[in-house]
Design brief:
The complex is a heterodimer of chains A (about 170) and B (about 425). Chain A is mostly helical and about 170 residues long. Chain A has four helices and no strands. The chains are: A mainly alpha (about 170), B mainly alpha (about 425).
Chain lengths: ~170, ~425
């Protein structure tokens, strides 16, 4: 479980780098457009595909950490045993959802690979971006399985919650 | 075929899952896909699941969310919140209750770079609360001011809730941001006025202020001019059409990074932390957004929005009556649900009603965000109150809720003003 948590942290950091790239691309696009009338080839397509990758990996790791937005009304008044039971149920539900999602997304990746869709300027194939996004979902299914096993054995570590900003 | 029973079953299942503390976004997605499958078959439902989430996740318009979050994370990490508080205190601290006023002003400044109510409340619980307590401000008042000040993050640009509203209703996010400026300023002024009224009504309740000389004021301004300029640049750029909201978010995050780095306030490790924080929050929002869009397909095939519209307009109530009914529903929902989840879940159903009644969608966006933000501070859920409690350990929830009462009353009055005078919200966007 410790290794899984460490892996999730590394995965988040890598996904965070994709966010950095999207930001730099957006920033540079505006600056170059006004300063030199230059357009970065495929900056739009690259940005949105990187956004897809960072979003899917982010959702996957957030699910593994159990940090999705939830309603605590009933959970908050339950005794610790009840809370643990609901936490385990939540993991089962998340695992099922992510497994079906990963399966559906796999069909999409295969569909993209055969359709040969490419980006607008550089003609880069789109499916590798989708495959990278999908891999986040696939990994999350494995990690959620580990988490569930830990919860059932009573050895799962409680991830440190973060303050959601909205 | 009448799909009413399936729609009803879907809503019951969704609320059941949410009450069992299942992730809201996943619950919405699961119910949406299952309901869609029950009506159209599970093959098309899986196809929907294959198409819709990736389309949402790769929509360039949605990039505003992680990039504005990154801007806020960098601003927080590099200590801009403390500087904002210091500057606001230098100018407002001389009044009785001045530290409270300074907290409101600093919250507004911070909200304008973070777009987040919860982040604003969390930050100022750490920055302003100890300072107010040191100056013998009552616990309830100190916490109430921070909870109320935090809500400014929902209305001032770059509000995340407004961004999500725009994405769901296909409204121009730039227009919505600009529409939030005057109501946001009204909110700041009314909160400050509320503190003045408290100070006048209960003279011994709040301590007298401290006067600050001009050299001190100018020194305090030195710390905030760059970020103020960045905010004006972003909003001005959107207002003037120089760049899109997504580009504004990129410029904001990039600008905040450059300012923080130039001032030696951001190490590589801190930047990585900021990226990670922005990613996590963004992922939590995206999961609800994706789930809501999947749920939206279910609503469409069951024709729920049309049925709701027919029902509500068939009640024979005047337009304002319907609006008040909707707002009342949001206030009740705010007792059990998070503001973002509330907007994402209900807007696809409510929005057609609003449009059919001829209300301005941009104005309604402002009204609805102001209404759901009330849910951030009123009991029993009050997300901002929970956040303050999690940062400030020595205070009871009841004490915080007592502290927010005057600000809840102010919010209700402000809502009345904004409904009575829609021009406050529509003037600026109509002149873009």
């Amino acid at each position: 479980m410790k290794r899984a948590l460490a892996f999730a942290t590394v995965a988040e950091r890598v996904a965070g780098l994709f966010l950095a790239v999207v930001t730099v691309l957006t920033f540079a696009t505006v600056v170059l457009r006004y300063a030199f009338s230059i357009a970065i080839p495929d900056s739009y397509d690259l940005s949105r595909n990187f956004l897809g990758i960072l979003t899917f990996w982010g959702i996957a790791m957030t699910g593994f950490r159990g940090e999705h937005i939830k309603v605590d009304l009933i959970w908050g008044v339950l005794p610790p045993a009840g809370q643990r039971a609901l936490d385990a149920l939540s993991t089962v539900f998340t695992l099922l959802c992510m497994a079906v999602f990963a399966y559906a997304m796999a069909t999409k990746v295969l569909g993209e690979a055969t359709s040969g869709e490419t980006t607008y300027d550089l003609n880069l194939p789109v499916w590798p971006f989708y495959a990278l996004a999908w891999s986040g979902l696939a990994v999350s299914v494995l990690l959620l399985g580990l988490r569930l096993a830990g919860q059932l054995r009573g050895t799962a570590e409680t991830p440190v919650p973060i303050a959601l900003s909205h | 075929m009448d799909h009413g029973p399936i729609a009803l079953l879907g809503f019951v299942a969704l609320f059941g899952l949410m009450m069992l503390r299942m992730p809201i976004g996943l619950a919405m997605g699961a119910v949406g896909v299952t309901g869609f499958g029950l009506i159209n078959g599970f093959g098309p439902a899986l196809k929907l699941l294959a198409q819709s989430p990736i389309r949402t996740a790769t929509d360039a318009g949605f990039a505003v969310i992680p990039m504005f979050l990154l801007m806020g994370a960098i601003a927080t990490t590099s200590g801009m919140s403390t500087e904002l508080f210091r500057a606001a205190n230098a100018f407002l601290g001389r009044f009785r209750g001045g530290l409270g006023m300074a907290t409101i002003a600093a919250c507004a400044g911070f909200a304008a770079i973070s777009g987040s109510s919860v982040a604003t409340a969390a930050t100022f619980s750490a920055v302003a609360y100890p300072e107010m307590r040191r100056h013998r401000y009552p616990q309830s008042f100190s916490a109430g001011v921070i909870a109320a000040g935090g809500t400014l993050g929902s209305i001032l640009p770059p509000s995340l809730v407004l961004a999500v509203y725009s994405l769901i209703t296909q409204q121009d996010v730039g227009k919505l941001y600009i529409a939030g400026i005057l109501p946001g300023i009204l909110a700041i002024l009314m909160y400050i006025a509320t503190i003045s009224v408290i100070a006048l009504a209960r003279p011994g309740f709040l301590p007298p202020g401290e006067r600050h000389g001009w050299p001190e004021k100018l020194r305090a301004l030195r710390g905030v001019w760059a970020i103020t300029l960045l905010f004006l640049f972003i909003v001005g750029g959107m207002y003037g059409g120089a760049f899109t909201p997504t580009e504004a978010a990129g410029m904001g995050a990039g600008g905040a990074f450059l300012i923080a780095t130039a001032r030696g306030r951001l190490s590589l490790a801190q930047l990585m932390d900021c990226l990670q924080k922005a990613l996590r929050t963004s992922a939590a929002i995206f999961s609800i957004l994706i789930g809501a869009l999947l749920f939206g397909y279910f609503l469409t095939v069951t024709q729920t929005p049309q049925h709701v519209t027919e029902f509500v307009t068939g009640l024979g109530l005047p337009r304002t009556g319907v609006l008040l009914l909707i707002m009342l529903m949001y206030l009740v929902l705010g007792c059990v649900m998070d503001a973002m989840a509330m907007v994402i879940l209900t807007i696809p159903i409510i929005f057609p009603v609003i449009v059919s009644l001829g209300f301005d969608p941009v104005w309604f966006g402002v009204i609805i965000v102001m209404t759901v933000e009330l849910g951030l501070i009123h009991p029993p859920v009050g997300m901002n109150v929970f956040v303050i409690k999690s940062v400030v350990r020595d205070i009871g929830m009841g004490t915080i809720f007592i502290g927010v009462i005057p600000f809840v009353i102010t919010d209700l009055i402000r809502l009345g003003i904004l409904i009575g005078f829609p021009i406050i919200s529509t003037y600026l966007p109509n002149h873009m």
